[in-house]
Amino acid sequence: MNYPLASATDFAADTFFITWVIAPTPESDAFWGEWLQQYPFKRETVLEARELVLLLSEDEYPLVETDTAAVWQRLQQEMHTAQHANSGTVAYRFGLQRGMLVAASVGLLLLVAGLYLFMGLRTETMKHATAFGEKRTILLPDSSVMVLNANSSVTYQAWSANEPRLVHLSGEAYFSVTHQRNHQKFVVETPDGSQVEVLGTEFNVTGRGEENRVVLASGKVRLRYDGEKHTAQQLIMQPGDLVELAGTARRTLTRKQVRPELYTAWKDNRVIFEDTPLQEIAAMLEEVYGYQVVIADASLADQRLTANLDNRGVESILETVSETLGTAITTQNNTITIRLPNK
Amino acid sequence: MVASERELWSNFMQGSEADFTLLYHRFAPVLLRYGNRVTKDREMVKDSLQQVFFTLWKSKANLSTPANVTYYLLKAMRSELLKKLSRQPVHEALPEDYCFELEASYEEDLITEQGSEHTKKRLSAVLEKLPSRQREVVFLKYYANLKYEEIASIMGIAQESAYKLNYKALDKLQHLLKRVLVCALPVLFASIF
Asked: Which of A83, A103, A338, B48 is disulfide-compatible with B80, CB 3.0–4.6 A?
């Protein structure tokens, strides 16, 4: 385009010009600054074109946020249904149908809760909870993403800009936390009072009863916990660190290097075992799916399993266990019994 | 830590649901706005948005990373809307250009009183007066910041035509914005009732 001869309309229709107005860079700022010095008589025209582009790049469709949230709820529902349709009969046999109803009502609650926040009732406590066998992705007000595993809940109050973003977690969740310009901290507190404190990073937290575990995927976090004789302790975790806090009266801390993917796979609907003892798998089935698991033969408890599965629910996990370890598994009501075959 | 579009996309393709959530929240507004420019049926726009993202999620194993995610999603949104529109009886009869011309003094009051709020209302009123294809080009060019080449491909027209449509729209808009016509009036009424 011949810029010195261009009219305001010409400018406003020019891709190079539009991109400068909508998304300026130091280079384009410099270009147009110099250009205007060279052709000062075009200043008016350029300003007029700029106004027009700015005006057109706005959009006055006011209810877009409620629509976005409403469609997201519907979409989650549809995805959930599709996922369980894949595993067909399994869903029915294990009574996950009811789980879906729970999911629907939780979805509704979330929507209502979302509207409350949207309308500025900011002292309200927000709560998200999942049923057994359910998993939910939640976008927090600061654009951090939280994936809540089954049988878990999280609460938080609206955050103000100069205090830490505090979240109370019971159960298991994966967090991908956004870094804020003012370095506002993000803190996850578990029922035992431990706190995971971060600036912006990805990690997995489990806090159920006596089991408390943090796995760090990337970045850096500070873990504050109640040590022996209620002394406040803290440690800094590095990527790949797993820290486990066990016991209540006498707390023991274990720290080791792991592959974080093994502990965060659940959020992407995968189940990964790597040399995992059957006992641990049984504990997971109890926490995540709400079963009572009985290992009838003590010798089995320490049998180990390595597998990478598409999470199609309990049945497929049990199938893998029984095929790999050659065990017999029976499910009755809410109890899964694992024993050696032919007994 | 704001991930780029393509980063989000490739993480999503590898199965990350967190990134799918981010992808949705980043692009849903532009798709909704686009839909609402193209049709007045808000439920249809919401259904189309849901369909676009559900299809995306279902077929993530077979996708490739597009050069421009906005462009890709807008194109998907348009074909979804067209599918739904073609199933409906056509009633796209836009009202004829209809505009009250008020006394100058009243106009001036209105302008000084309402400032930029007024300009915006005026804009949406004049946008309404553009033929629907021009309105669409203007959205894709200025709100979505796409190249003419991409706009042409989305709308199934030649690149040259996309440029011309936009130029015509601009010319008309500038003209309309300069003549102080209070087209905001129907909008004001609409917001009262």
From this structure: B48
What's the topology of domain A134-268?
Answer: Jelly Rolls (2.60.120)
Record: contact B29-A267, CB cut-off 8 A: no
Coil vs helix vs strand at A138: strand
* Contact map slice: B 60-99 vs A, CB within 8 A: none
Q: Which residues of B touch A75 (CB under 8 A)?
A: 24, 50, 53-54, 57
Find out whether B63 and B13 touch, Cβ atoms under 8 Å. Answer: yes
- The CATH number fitting domain B5-87, selected from 1.10.3300.10, 1.10.579.10, 3.20.20.70, 1.10.1740.10: 1.10.1740.10
State the DSSP code for B89.
P
| DSSP strand pairing (A292-295 vs A165-176) | unpaired
Q: ipTM score here?
A: 0.71
CATH class assigned to A269-339: alpha beta
Interface of A with B (CB under 8 A): 8-9, 12-13, 15, 18-19, 22-23, 52-53, 55-61, 64-65, 67-68, 70-72, 74-75, 78-79, 82, 137, 139, 143, 145, 147, 174, 176, 178-179, 200, 267-270
For chain A, 343 residues long, give each residue's pLDDT as a single digit of tens.
Answer: 678 888 888 999 999 999 999 888 888 889 998 998 898 888 888 988 988 888 888 765 555 677 888 888 888 888 888 876 654 333 333 333 444 444 444 444 555 545 444 444 445 678 888 888 788 888 888 878 888 888 889 988 878 877 888 999 998 998 888 887 778 889 999 888 888 888 777 888 888 877 788 888 888 888 888 777 677 888 888 888 888 887 766 677 888 888 888 788 888 878 888 888 898 888 888 877 888 899 988 888 888 988 888 877 788 888 888 888 888 898 888 899 998 886 5
The fold for domain B104-192 equals: Arc Repressor Mutant, subunit A (1.10.10)
Report yes or no: B24 at the A interface, CB cutoff 8 Å: yes
Q: Which residues pair with A198 in a beta bridge?
A: A186, A221
